[in-house]
Known about the structure:
The chain has helices spanning 30-47, 72-91, 110-122, 124-127, 142-147, 158-161, 167-177, 184-193, and strands at 14-19, 49-56, 60-67, 104-107. The protein is α+β, with helices and mostly antiparallel strands. The chain has a single domain, classed as Alpha-Beta Plaits. Strands 2-3-1-4 form a four-stranded antiparallel β-sheet. β2 (49-56) and β3 form a beta hairpin. α1 runs antiparallel to α2 (72-91). It is globular, with a radius of gyration of 16 Å.
Amino acid sequence: MARLPRFSPAGLPQHVIQRGNNRSVCFAAEQDFSAYTNWLKEYSVEHGVAIHAWVFMTNHVHLLLTPKTDGALSAMMQALGRRYVRYFNHHYQRSGTLWEGRFKSSVVQSETYLLQCYRYIELNPVRASMVGDPAEYPWSSYRSNGLGVETDLCTPHHEYLKLGRNKQERMVVYRALFTAHVDGKLIEDIRRAV
């Protein structure tokens, strides 16, 4: 039986999670993170998908993005997944699946949930006790969104832009959102939604 097409409407932000098969490592070295980052940027441009927040953990990925056309998200993730798996399998002399089935995604309500989703994603390395502060983790959008580090991977969402009149104001307000960690109920709600 054929898979049902994904609900991926144009213009609506979505939280995407893709896990390594059996929670296995899908990024074993710095070059793996770099390769994934480069191809994510390439395919996001090719398929018209704006990326607002991301974190690449050793065994999974979180993305917050908005497709410009219906179906663009699926096309981007499929192209990215195929290319990265070929690279990973060749580089580590392995075969078979890398990802745990298809990616999971949920539509994000912009006004009420979007900035919470930014926080949830970028605090992932803190919750995993990998770092004490999200700014310490290099494979996340926090440095761009919170500290102004330039990257061509990040496209600010209009809800993020409403945080201040200019870049400096936005970053101050954004960093203030991170003074309190994401509470347990919100974490559970986000996980359930995806």
